[in-house]
Design brief:
Radius of gyration: 14 Å
Structural class: alpha+beta
Order of helices and strands: EHHEEEHEHEE
CATH class: Alpha Beta
Strand order of the largest sheet: 1-2-3-4-5-7-6
CATH superfamily: Gcn5-related N-acetyltransferase (GNAT)
Shape: globular
Strand content: 25-35%
CATH topology: Aminopeptidase
Distance between the termini: 33 Å
Number of domains: 1
Helix content: 25-40%
CATH architecture: 3-Layer(aba) Sandwich
Length: 163
């Protein structure tokens, strides 16, 4: 299967169960804690509905009708400036390293600019080195402290990108 065989599209209600399972699976696969990470986010119960608000969007990667990963943006909670957060970027192992993460980030950054955001923030884990490499390649830079109120206190690598 080539990169063009994958469909990147906006999340639909039918994707909720698949994307929740992917997020939780990848968190456990990476050895991340369930507490203080996206694993316990209430948003996972209805990801479609979570992103049906102003200045928010979530994309999924689909292959032959099956969702294999996704990522999105929304206003950074607890932060009043024009800052969005890159959220819930999780991909099953089978599709990592195929450039799909870069494509999702690019789509999210285009939408972020359209939505009027000035910068994009993200949080990750120190041992998620491949993810950090991807984010740096996409223009994110490390910062020394968290921003906003994500409730992801187990994520202690913080990054920002000007838009």
């Amino acid at each position: 299967m080539t990169n063009s065989d994958y469909i990147i599209r906006e999340i639909a209600p039918r994707d909720n169960k698949q994307i929740k399972k992917i997020v939780q699976h990848v968190i456990l696969e990476m050895g991340a804690p369930k507490i203080g990470t996206a694993y316990e986010d209430s948003a996972l119960e209805d990801m479609y509905e979570t992103y049906q608000k102003d200045r928010a969007i979530y994309f999924v990667v689909e292959y032959q009708g099956k969702v294999l990963g996704g990522g999105g943006i929304a206003q950074l909670d607890g932060f009043d400036k024009n800052t969005c957060e890159l959220q819930k970027m999780y991909f099953l192992n089978d599709i990592r390293g195929k450039g799909l993460g870069s494509r999702i980030i690019e789509k999210c950054m285009i939408k972020a600019k359209i939505f009027g955001y000035e910068q994009c923030y993200l949080e990750t884990m120190p041992y998620m080195l491949a993810a950090q490499k991807l984010y740096k390649k996409a223009g994110f830079k490390n910062i020394n402290a968290p921003m906003g109120n994500t409730c992801h206190y187990s994520c202690d690598v913080w990054m920002i990108r000007k838009l």
